[in-house]
Amino acid sequence: MDMTYVVVPTYNEAENIESLLKEILSLNLGVRILIVDDNSPDGTGRIAEELSHKNSLVEVMKNPAKAGLGRAYLKGFWYVLEQGAQKVVTMDADFSHRPREIPSLLEKSDAYDVVVGSRHVPGAELDYPWFRKMVSLSAVSFARWLLGLGIKDCTSAFRVYNRRALKCVLKKQNYSDGYIFLVELLFRLHKKGYTMVEVPIVFKDRERGRSKMAVPEEIMNGVYSLIRLKIGSILP
């Protein structure tokens, strides 16, 4: 089996990280797990390091200061490619993405450069409040219309990339931050002709810990970033 890494960025996930790692490892997929902790004040990084000492499949990178989602992912991507990863799974640490669905995403990754665990295709289930459903659908609809993306859930962080796609991603150094980073990755890979497919998932609202999304700020920053990304794509 090709070397596969699961890259999980974390910030204040002390209540979830141990259970998440145990559930991923219990799948017996032979994957390695990289936790990229963004200087969590609640001790997430310390807990992850303790678990890494007990299991050689778990590795931890700790940022000295909070750097944001995009930079955490890019730092993780550089590292796992240097280790020889051929496939990279990305997911959130709050159990909104169910580890048991990793195999179905990996199965599709043999035929596509990017596989997206999608909340907005037939067969998917959404288990969170109506307001968040409205925000999510509005965000992805606007992004798809503006950027011409075929992927219905372009803000989903539950993905599998192959090595070829990630090497393309890392050729560029300056990306948007926050959840728009995820949209920008798909947009740039789409423009380069990389193949993509969506797999329906069950998306659950977090049960423990607090959401990181500050909705008004995230929406305004997201709209600005998407417009800037569109303008940048048409200017010489």
UniProtKB/TrEMBL annotation:
GO terms for MF: dolichyl-phosphate beta-D-mannosyltransferase activity
An annotated GO cellular component: membrane
Occurrences of domain Glycosyltransferase 2-like (ranges): 6-169
Any single GO BP term: glycolipid biosynthetic process
Keyword field contains rRNA-binding: no
Entries under Gene3D superfamilies matching the protein: Spore Coat Polysaccharide Biosynthesis Protein SpsA, Chain A (3.90.550.10)
Keywords: Glycosyltransferase, Transferase
Source organism, top-level taxon: Bacteria
InterPro entries hit by this protein: DPM1-like (IPR039528), Glyco_trans_2-like (IPR001173), Nucleotide-diphossugar_trans (IPR029044)
Pfam families the record matches: Glycos_transf_2 (PF00535)
Keyword Plastid found: no
Family: Belongs to the glycosyltransferase 2 family.
Name of the featured protein: Glycosyltransferase 2-like domain-containing protein
Species for this entry: candidate division CPR3 bacterium 4484_211
